[in-house]
Specification:
The protein is mostly helical. It has three helices and no strands. The longest helix has 17 residues. The radius of gyration is 12 Å and the shape is globular. About 15% of the residues are buried.
């Protein structure tokens, strides 16, 4: 897991809620961070609403197929 993303996710728990806009020009890094963020949220018992375009979503789903379902 990406430690920076894990630390970031943990810092959000202090707020009990968050809205994040994440921009990146590096698709591989974005996909890895998105999957890590989603998985950490679910493991922490949080509700995660993740909106992504149909071109990128399948790549994120491959990183975390067991927990990301619509």
């Amino acid at each position: 897991m990406n430690q920076k993303m894990s630390d970031f996710t943990e810092s959000l728990r202090v707020l009990d809620y968050a809205h994040i806009l994440y921009l990146s020009e590096q698709a591989d890094l974005y996909i890895e961070n998105a999957a890590t963020y989603i998985l950490n949220g679910i493991r922490n018992g949080d509700r995660v609403l993740f909106a992504e375009n149909p071109r990128i979503y399948p790549q994120i789903h491959k990183k975390a197929p067991a927990v990301i379902e619509c």
